[in-house]
Amino acid sequence: MLRGRNFRELFEIPKIFGQPRPKGNRIAIITMTGGAGVMSTDVAYECSLELARFSEKTISELEKIFPSLAKNPSDVGPAMFAGDLVQIYKKTIEAALEDENVDCVSVVLWTGEAAPPQLYVELFNELKEKASKPIAIWIYGTKVTAVHELSRELEKLDFPVFLDFETAVRALGMLYEYSRLQGNA
Known about the structure:
This protein is of the alpha/beta class.
């Protein structure tokens, strides 16, 4: 039996079940801030998820983009000063999705003038064809309207967006648990 922690989760968590089932419990966390990465890690462990150990190939690819990305959680915040933030997210998410040691991905997106919603919509439209692993998203930013716009657009592409990063990680944990109970993980 799967149980939510509160009434909001009863309505929010089910949208994760439109994602592919994870084959295991190894999570990659991609975040804009190290603090959210650490807190997401705590929630992941509470939900029977473990941090994926990136393959040597993934570590090498991520180090080429920016050194702080080559660990899990991957913190794109420092890397944003080295290039196009949306492209850094794209390459980091793609590397995690392609890594055989990763079963699911939690993404914390930041949207603002340097990374407007439409650029993320284009990114996730491209990722939609490649995503064979579940992805859960939380978005924050400088303008509530931009956060809501991006959330609506990503959900139109069938990527679940959650109200906080804790719920996003819990949703992946529940999806893993469901997959395990069904004998698929």
